[in-house]
Amino acid sequence: NDDLDALLSVINDAEKFIYISVMNYFPEVISYEKNMPLQFWPVIDDALRKAAIERSVEVRLLISKWKHSMANMYEYLGSIKALNGISSFQIRVRYFIVPSYTEAQMRIPYARVNHNKYMVTDKAVYIGTSNWSGDYFLYTGGIAFIYEEGNNTSNNLNKKCIDLDNEFSIPKPLSVRKQVENIFRRDWNSEFAYEL
């Protein structure tokens, strides 16, 4: 589908790094019906492994952990993390916990979770509505926004301003891609992120 094709394109175009922050990450089609057979769906997982192994792209996954997280998700994450250090590439995994500070916060259903669904690379930003598991990409109507960083030199210049007394420069604004990268790094290095 178009959403998945766009996501894979962002992964495949990355040259230096791929940083992902999502609530769920499963290389399977999740069924919430009892007695349904497990269906393996490694499309995104394979693309990330290939980027790391074949192109030495650094991969970081920041995955939400909350009371509704499925335990087998961490087994899948452990399998991709196990590749770290085999060669010159890096694959790192952390989980993100939004704490409850009061009893009232703990009682709010389906809250206290980092509900992100984005990826930032050295080239682009992908922000979507789908959790990263096969069932979302196969059976729901997700949508995504992709911002690709261009080479527009007019945006790279500091602007000179003159008031009546002084000349000063206004620093160039950060690109959307760089802003999202900074958000990822903030969360990755926060007190709420833990190594898997």
Strand and helix map with partners:
Elements: H1 2-13, E1 17-22, E2 25-26, E3 28-29, E4 39-40, H2 43-55, E5 58-64, H3 72-81, E6 91-96, H4 103-107, E7 117-121, E8 124-128, E9 132-133, H5 134-139, E10 144-148, E11 159-162, E12 167-170, H6 176-188, E13 193-195
Helix pairs in contact: 1-2
CATH topology: Endonuclease, Chain A
Largest sheet: 7 strands, mixed
Portion in strands: 25-35%
CATH superfamily: Endonuclease Chain A
What Rg, in angstroms, do the CA atoms define? 19 Å
Distance between the termini: 31 Å
Uncertain segments are 153-157
By DSSP (H or I, 4+ residues per run), the number of helices equals 6
If strands are numbered along the chain, what order do they take across the biggest sheet?
Answer: 10-8-7-1-5-6-13
How many domains make up the 3D coordinates? 1
Q: What is the 3D shape? A: globular
Domain PLD phosphodiesterase: 110-136
Protein name: SJCHGC03231 protein
Pfam family, one: PLDc
Family: Belongs to the phospholipase D family.
Question: Which features does this protein show?
Answer:
alpha/beta, 196 residues, two-stranded parallel ribbon, Endonuclease, Chain A
Tell me what the structure shows.
The protein is of the alpha/beta class. The chain has one domain: Endonuclease, Chain A (2-Layer Sandwich). The chain has six helices and 13 strands. It has helices at residues 2-13, 43-55, 72-81, 103-107, 134-139, 176-188; strands at 17-22, 25-26, 28-29, 39-40, 58-64, 91-96, 117-121, 124-128, 132-133, 144-148, 159-162, 167-170, 193-195. The strands form four sheets. It has a seven-stranded mixed beta sheet, with helices on both faces. Strands 2-9 form a two-stranded parallel sheet. It has a two-stranded antiparallel ribbon with strand order 3-4. Strand 5 (58-64), helix 3 and strand 6 (91-96) form a beta-alpha-beta unit. Helix 1 (2-13) runs parallel beside helix 2 (43-55). The two termini are 31 Å apart. Mean pLDDT is 88; it is low at 153-157. This is SJCHGC03231 protein. InterPro entries: Diverse_PLD-related, PLDc_3, PLipase_D/transphosphatidylase.
